[in-house]
Each structure stands twice: as structure tokens, then as C-alpha cells.
Recover the amino acids of this structure.
């Protein structure tokens, strides 16, 4: 049985870690390098770094900061934000990323998924999907949640798998930052539709929420941000709790 993963997420804006609610109202959460080092030492299974304003500001990911974070950790490292070409990915991999995450660029140019999977391998390609529940349907949103589309979450998830994505990072915009738990029904539906790992994102507030994400949402990994950044729980505490509740987790 594959072990479940706990993944802290660093949302980066202007070189600082930030966190908001429903993708707005961002507040400072600390220095990304110091946080990354701490999470690596505490036993996080992976780390995600999302340069959340890169696409909106039409610039590339902050490469020097990626390099600095990579040097501070010894766990798999996924980087996203502003990636739109093979060249962008080559630069990030050279500077310490193990995987890359694409979102808006994948929707605008789905062939990019095929190109990246072909060149770097599916294991390197994470497709992030930000979606909102609108009139009974989960709809994909772009540019840090600011641009709505008519694309159905589940149709898009199936397509990205077919195009070669190795993982899906699904963020429920409705749950993001609310600390009310993950969107477990949508997660479970995703898990039945695709055969690649699903990372649950958006809504973690208690240890029980992580347990529900694994048990009810069938997630392969659960991502947390503010609960870790603001010391509401530690990764060792969370992993011990999950192990006690029969979740296969690496301690």
C-alpha cells in the first residue's frame, strides 16, 4: 500500500509566504526559506511552492528564491506559477525543483501537458486545478482564481490524465482558507475518475480534516498551509494522529 503524504504549501507573493481565504485577503505568513527548512526537518513528505501572482503579473517564477528553498530542504519539491513553456521548466529543474505545477497555462494550451510529460516524464508534471462550485457544477478558474471558465472540473481532470499529467493538485476555492475541511465529495469523485494521485488542497483546519481527506476524499496527499504556517499544528503531531487512526503514513 502506498503511504499517504502530508504536503505543506508555500504561496509566494513579493518573495514572502502569504495566506488568504477563498483566494483573497492575503496576510503575511513568514519567510519561505525558513518555513521550508522547518517543514523539511519536521518530516513533511514533500513541499509545494506556488508563485501565486506570477501569471497575473505576466512574469516568470522567482528562480533565485526557488534555488534558495531547494538548497534548504531534502524532500521532493514542486514549483508552480508563471510556467508556460519547456524552457521555463528546464530552468526550474536546473535550480532545484523536482516537479513543476501548471494551471492556467495548461488550460490555455493543453498540448503543453503532452510536451512536458514527453520531455520530462509524467512524474514531473503536476496539473493544479482551482475550481469553484457554481450552480451545481464544479467550474475551473484561472489566474489565481480570478478568471472563471465554463470548463467542468471532472472533464478537465480526465483530459489532463490522458495528456500525461502525473498528479492533480485540486484546490476547492470555496473551502480555501476557511478551515472547514476539504471538499471531500468532489475529491472522492475525482479519485474514481482518474488513476493518477490526487492532492487535496483548500480547507484544512484540524487534524480530523486531514483524516477525512484521506478516508472520505480518497486523496493520496493532503496539502496544508495556514495550519502549519501559524503553528496551529505541527507535522509530527499530525502524522502521529493519522497513524493512530490507521492511515498509512511515513513517520
Amino acid at each position: 500500500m502506498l503511504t499517504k503524504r502530508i504536503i505543506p504549501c508555500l504561496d509566494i507573493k513579493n518573495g514572502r509566504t502569504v495566506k488568504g481565504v477563498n483566494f483573497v485577503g492575503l496576510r503575511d505568513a513568514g519567510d519561505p526559506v525558513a518555513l521550508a527548512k522547518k517543514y523539511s526537518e519536521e518530516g513533511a513528505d514533500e513541499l509545494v511552492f506556488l508563485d501565486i501572482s506570477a501569471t497575473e503579473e505576466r512574469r516568470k517564477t522567482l528562480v533565485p528564491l526557488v534555488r534558495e528553498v531547494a538548497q534548504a530542504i531534502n524532500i521532493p519539491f514542486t514549483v508552480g506559477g508563471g510556467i508556460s513553456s519547456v524552457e521555463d521548466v528546464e530552468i526550474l529543474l536546473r535550480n532545484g525543483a523536482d516537479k513543476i505545477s501548471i494551471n492556467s497555462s495548461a488550460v490555455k494550451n493543453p498540448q503543453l501537458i503532452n510536451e512536458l510529460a514527453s520531455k520530462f516524464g509524467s512524474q514531473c508534471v503536476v496539473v493544479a486545478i482551482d475550481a469553484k462550485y457554481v450552480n451545481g457544477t464544479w467550474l475551473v478558474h484561472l489566474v489565481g482564481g480570478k478568471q472563471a471558465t465554463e470548463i467542468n472540473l471532472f472533464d478537465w481532470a480526465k483530459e489532463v490524465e490522458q495528456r500525461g499529467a502525473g498528479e492533480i493538485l485540486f484546490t476547492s476555492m470555496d473551502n480555501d482558507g476557511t478551515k472547514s475541511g476539504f471538499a471531500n465529495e468532489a475529491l472522492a469523485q475525482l479519485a474514481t475518475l482518474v488513476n493518477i494521485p490526487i492532492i487535496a488542497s483548500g480547507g484544512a483546519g484540524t487534524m480530523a480534516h486531514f483524516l477525512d481527506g484521506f478516508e472520505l476524499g480518497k486523496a493520496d496527499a493532503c496539502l496544508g498551509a495556514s495550519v502549519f504556517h501559524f503553528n496551529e499544528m505541527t507535522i509530527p503531531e499530525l502524522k502521529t494522529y493519522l497513524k493512530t487512526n490507521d492511515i498509512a503514513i511515513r513517520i
